[in-house]
Amino acid sequence: MLRRPFIASGIAIVALIIVLLIVSLVLGQRHLRTVQKELGRTNEQVVKLEKVIANQKTGLDAVDKARAQLQSHLDEANSDNDQLRKELDAAQSQLKEQ
Q1: In angstroms, how far is the first alpha carbon of the chain from the final one?
Q2: Which residues have CB under 8 Å from 46's CB, separation 6+?
Q3: How far is CA 4 from CA 10, 22, 62, in A?
């Protein structure tokens, strides 16, 4: 007779543990779905930002190319200026000697 209450208590405890595990599993599943949805949104944002970065890099490359071309023209103009300055100085020296 004394065994029946213990068996009933044991079954009740096992049932309670099973219920708690099921509740925990359901809550974990809900949390997992929420995190998966958030991850999906985050991945969409990453894709959009990667496109923005690619566009910015393309623009930066174009600006850098234009800057390099302007620098080249400036260097050439400075070289021409130096050459003309030398020619002017030589011409002025020649005039003073005459």
Answers
A1: 141
A2: none
A3: 10, 27, 85
Written as six digits, the tokens of 29 are 């599943």
Distance, CA of 56 to chain centre:
12
What's the pTM?
0.59
Cα separations (Å) of 92 from 57, 78, 83, 84, 89?
51, 21, 14, 12, 5
pLDDT in tens, the chain (98 residues): 567 888 999 999 999 999 999 999 999 999 999 999 999 999 999 999 999 999 999 999 999 999 999 999 999 999 999 999 999 999 998 888 87
Longest dimension (CA), the chain: 141
DSSP-derived secondary structure letter, 2: T
